[in-house]
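Changelog note: in this version the structure field was regenerated for every chain. One regenerated record is shown below for reference.
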Amino acid sequence: METVTLTHTAALARLGHALGDPTRTRIMLALRDGPAYPADLADGLGVSRQVMSNQLACLRGCGLVTTRRDGRRTEYRLCDPALAHALGDLLRLTLAVDPDCCGPDCTCASGAPSHEERETAA
């Protein structure tokens, strides 16, 4: 088993931050297919170019995407082909999701009973 370092922990925390936003997640999933330009990504995902610019800046700051100048345009790609594979692996996970958890009314961190616990008690 590989030794986990603070660098590994920081990298996973950045990935978690990136995946915590649905638009950033959709961008990263779109880039699994290959490099793309911001305008094309914005059109494909149905967001404004400003939103796309902000989200790409975040992903770049997290070290998850890289850029390459192409004349006057900038092409974005995932930082490492292994990230595309990891995202694919994450898509294949089967999770038991509590619909009341991790949303606006989430009680999992407060110690209050979960949705399942409330139904069992009823």
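Spot check on this record: The chain has six helices and two strands. The beta strands are 65-70, 73-78.
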